[in-house]
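Sample A.
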Amino acid sequence: MPTLPAIFRSKRVITLVASTAVLGTLLTGCTATTSTAGTSTSTPSSTSTSTAPTTTAAGSVVAATEAFTATLTSDQLASLNQEYTLENAEAWSNLPQAMSRNRVGLQLSELDDSQLTALGTLLQAVTGTTAGEGYDEIQQLLNADDYLADNGGGSDYGSGNYFIAFLGTPSDTGTWELQFGGHHFAVANTYTDGVLAGATPSFRGVEPYGTFEQDGETNAPLESEQVALAAVLASLSTDQLSSAELDGVYRDLVLTPGNDWAFPADNEGVQVGTLAADQKALVLAAIATYVNDINDADAATILAKYESELDETYVSYSGGSSLTEQDDYIRIDGPSVWIEFSMQRGIILSGSHPHSVWRDSTTDYGGTQQQ
């Protein structure tokens, strides 16, 4: 498999630090405001002047798709370009390709360095710039799969086993989806008439979990998600934890690949609207670690929507509240947002590792909610 070029492997130094320091970074962009009822809610400063995604921003995505396709052969284009159908949109998995084989599109192992560079530019156009999220997180997760390939996983793992597909024709008119993913990773950005119509399902998982070295780089993907979600649970009182605790053991996510339309009819857990202002800020900060995976302008718009629904959002969990051991599980369930984080047993390596998904009950697959 080709070695990913420098655009996929920008040098970074990531050091695991105390959770309080990480959490402080996550909360930097949030301020608290007080409602007339005396109940405070948190407002991310980045959303105070946000507007809807513009066709200009979307146009830069289309330009990046055109620059990428210009590097491809006719056979590669035939693999890349797929029909925009719900069946193709649902053809994603968190499993290694050897265990899944249902993905559509062009495999990264078929690309040369110049083509991978053009793909990296495209992925930068659709993802966020926050450290540890967005494009930085993609790099770290690809590094993680290369680590598995080098440490017992063999050829079934590695960044060459990831796929890129265009469902429909990239354009500022009509509807199309940019689909990118592989083991432990899925991007599904759907655009309608030049505007991002949906950024979910968005899957993130990682093995090894924690700090690891790969090709001279230090990586710690999904640290910010775990720290932020654990901070929410740590902030809850004994009574609030009791309200938030779910019955039973959750050994995996509820809304796994292939289980797309199973949003529970009833909310479970503690309602965020009953929490104090600082607790609400923690919930919003946890949500932001997922939303910030997409480009900054669209992330601000989506986070503002989720903030407006925050009081009607619920937090629930099962297992330990530290979210570090197998079967530890947490869920954020709002009128739109759905986030799950589940600690799994190791597959290639010893120890636990997380699976995590961000869904949106109104915009999953760009709002194409039909079975």
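Sample B.
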Amino acid sequence: MSGCYTQITLADRRRLHHLVAAKVPVSEMARRLGRHRSTIYREIKRNTFRDRELPDYDGYYSTVANDIAQDRRRRLKKLRRHPNLRTEIINQLEARWSPEQIAGRLLSDGVSRVRVCKETIYRFIYSKEDYGLGLYQYLPEARRKRRPLRSRKPRDGAFPATHRISQRPDFIGDRSQFGHWEGDLLIFERPLGHANVTSLVERKSRYTVLIKNPSRHSRPIMDKIIKAFSPLPAYARQSFTFDRGTEFAGFRALEEGIGACSWFCDPSAPWQKGTVENTNKRIRRYLPGTTDLAIVSQRDLLHLTRHINDQPRKCLGYRTPTEVFMAHLREDG
């Protein structure tokens, strides 16, 4: 039996019609057609012809079953039958709402009488008829092709339990010790290329470092962090906290290169590295998602970090991150 599911064809239904008429057991039908028995059971149950006025003609007929199946597929295209709903969903996608947010809001508002799930919206975005609208570019990952359901690989192997944020020492969490950083990746609109920016913030001083990368490959990103932090004394670069993005899977290079430990947030919990998340909001004032990094140099990023690090912060008693960072370098050194 094939491991890849395909829709039942008219030819399959013709064979199935004869097997049903011969009253062959469902498991035997499935074996002969090379299908799972549940597939055959559902096919017969859903596409058997029934007529209350002519019950003698009830039964499974290949061409009728094919017509019933085709009609069901057409009826599932809700967004073609409800143009106003379709327009509303397009507007929300362009506002960068996720399909899950759109479906949830439509349900909670109760404005639309038609219920739409996130899967319907994803199918609409990637359908042959509507792919030309380019709505995929408004999704968080902006994938041109949809990743098959349940194909995402678990990342527990890349990020072992010993490096979870729950194992991180308390003195990092309460900011009582200097030299512990949080890191994230600033992504820009895909049509502008694969370039991105690593943002790194020291938790106690809120000192920010920005590094430009040509791609999201992990090892080059780690190598650039090592190069940027090597001039600092060891006590100023003790650890880094990241999310579980694949760009940080090469974290072991940090320990080998500069002796820094790495910690990782729980899945779907970016708020656990809130310092860099808040700093990213500041950075986005100057580097919005529409920025073309091809015209932004590392020198430009250095000027930007100086500007950000020279702004007084309330949480620092209105001192600047630069002042606090340099004071720790002098005191701890």
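B remarks: The longest helix spans residues 62-75. The CA atoms of residues 45 and 74 lie 19 Å apart.
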